[in-house]
Amino acid sequence: MNLEKELLSYWDKQGVDLIYKYKHQIHWYRSHREGRVNIKLFNDLTQTMFKEITDIASVDGYVEDGYAVSVKELLERLGHQRQRADELEKENDILKHNIRVELDSSRNMFSRMCKEKQRADEAEKRADAAEGKWEELKALLDEEISYNATSLRALFAQQWLVEMQNLERGEE
């Protein structure tokens, strides 16, 4: 696109006002009054340049008059295309930035969610462990209480026997 612009600028400075394309060659269009002379300006071997100009070799019954294009208009179009391309590039950059921000935000949210899940899993494990310890403590307390109850019964029974013996001796 830059080479096209450079060529068009050069031709404009040299006084070439109209051009046409024939078999991928750019020609200077000169009207009948100026004396039609076939002046070839450029041969596009790549066949990729000046696509906005119709190649009259592909048109049945071509006449250069109907397909000549103003060099100044082409320069303006290229300028507008460049300007539009710059605008689109800026919009694209803004969209890329917004996508990066959203992606970072989503990544951070996912990371926080993973950490919360990990903390919840750890809390659940601690709760399960505490419940297991509670059950163990309860069983130990039940065992201790039943042992103490048995011990107290035995103690009370022993005291009762002693008191009974004391009473029997006191009666004797």
UniProtKB/TrEMBL annotation:
Keyword entries, A-Z: Coiled coil
Name the UniProt record assigns to this protein: Uncharacterized protein
Regions annotated as coiled coil: 71-140
Superkingdom in the source lineage: Bacteria
